[in-house]
DNA sequence: GTCTATAGTTGGATAGAC
DNA sequence: GTCTATCCAACTATAGAC
C-alpha cells in the first residue's frame, strides 16, 4: 500500500515485501498473545520467512515489535494532535468537552471507516498495547502518548476552568478506561448476555462521548470553594 | 490467616505453609508479568521451594495460577452478589443506579480498608486478570464473572426500565472499563502530569460512581421512541 | 538478502532418592 | 512432602554458505 524508498538500493528492489510481511505478522501475533507470548519463530513462520531474515532486518525481537507498534499507533496520535490543533485554531482556544473527547476518539474510527480491516487491526493492537505488562511496551506507551495527553489535558483545563488539573486528569483517565475497554472489544465478562459490541461504529463513538462528557461535567471538586467566577453549570 | 483443613493428614501438619507460599508467589508474579510471562521456576524460587514441590501440590502451572486467581477474586465477587441481595431485599427490587454501581465497586475498597496490603494485591491481580490475553485466563474470567454480571444487569434493567438491555449492557461495559483502568493504577500514559492516582481511596470510589452514574443516565436510546411513560428526566 | 545449522538459555514436567 | 537430577521442547540470536 505505502511505497517507502529509503534503505532500498538503486535497483527496483523487486521483493522489498519481506519487512512488511514481518511487521504485519508481528503486529497480528502481538495483538493476540502480547509481547512475551509472541515468539520470533511464530512471527517468521507466519511471515513465511526465516529467523535470520527477521534478525537481519530488525536486529532483535524487541526492535521488530517496537517497529510494528509504532507503525500502527503513531499515525493515530498524529491525527489526534492535528484534530485539536484545528479545533483550537477555529475557536480561539476554548473548546467544548464534547468536541475534545470526540477529537480524541475520532481518528481511530476514521481508520475503521477508511479500511475496516486496518481498523480491526488497530483496535486489537491498541487494546493489547494498553494492557501489556512488559517494560518495553510500557516505555513505548509513555513515549507515544505523553505529548498527546498533555495537549488534551491543557485544553480540558480551559474548557472547565473551575476544576483542578489533578481532578480533570482523573476524569480523563476514566475516559481512557472506557476507550481502552471498548477497543478490547470481544473481551470481558460477556458471552451470553451482551455479545461483543452490537452497535454500528459511529454509534459507539457517540455513546462514548456522551457517557464521558456527562461524567466529566458531573464530577469533581471545584478549584476554589468560594470564588467560582461563573462557570458552574 | 485462613485455616483450611482438608487434604491434611491426621497430624498437625507443621509446615503446611508451602502451598500458601506458592499461591502468594504465583499471584505476585502473575500480577506483574501475566500468564505467559510467569515461569514455574520464578514462582518456586520466590516461594523458596522447588519445581517438584509445586507440581506435587498443583500438578501444573495452569492449575497453580488458576488456584491463585480464584483465591483472590472469588471472595470479592461473592461480596458483590451479597451486596445486591441486600439492596434488593431492603427496597423491594428497585434500586437506584448509584446504589448498584457502588455495590459493585465497594467490595474491592472494603478489602483495601481492612488490609491495605491485601487491597494492593487485589488491585494488581485484578488488573492483570482483566487484561491477560491468554485463553486460560479468559475462560476463568468468564466463569468467575458471568453470574455476577447477569445479576447486576438485571437490576440495572429495573432501575432504568425505559432502556433496552443491550443499551444498558454497553453502558455497563463503559463502567467496567473505568473500574479496570483505575485498578491498573500506576498504569497508563501518565508519568509527569497526572501521577498515579493522587486521591484517597473512598474519594476515588465516589468519583467513579458519580462519573458512571452521570454517564449511564445521560446516554442511550429509549426502548420505544414514542411511548415513554415518564422516566425521561 | 535469505537461507541452513547451531550455539546457548530457559521453559514445563517427571523420576527417583530420602 | 520435598529434594536433586534430568528429559525434552522451545526460545533468541548468531555464524557462515550462497
* Mean pLDDT over the full residue set of chain A: 86
CATH architecture of the domain at 72-218 in chain A: Orthogonal Bundle
Helical stretch tally of chain A? 9
Q: Largest protein interface?
A: A-B, 58 and 58 residues
Structural class determined from secondary elements of chain A = mainly alpha
Gap between N and C termini of chain A: 49 Å
The CATH topology annotation of the domain at 72-218 in chain A reads as Tetracycline Repressor, domain 2
Helix coverage percent of chain A: 55-70%
Order of helices and strands of chain A: HHHHHHHHH
Please count the beta strands of chain A (DSSP E, at least 2 residues each): 0
Q: Please, what is the CATH homologous superfamily of the domain at 72-218 in chain A? A: Tetracycline Repressor, domain 2
Hey, roughly how much beta strand do the residues of chain A contain? under 5%
Query: Taking Cα atoms only, what radius of gyration of chain A do you get, to the nearest Å?
Result: 21 Å
The low-confidence parts of chain A are 1-14, 187-195, 226-233
Largest sheet properties of chain A: none
Q: Please give the oligomerization state of what you see.
A: homodimer
CATH class type of the domain at 72-218 in chain A? Mainly Alpha
What would you call the shape of chain A? elongated
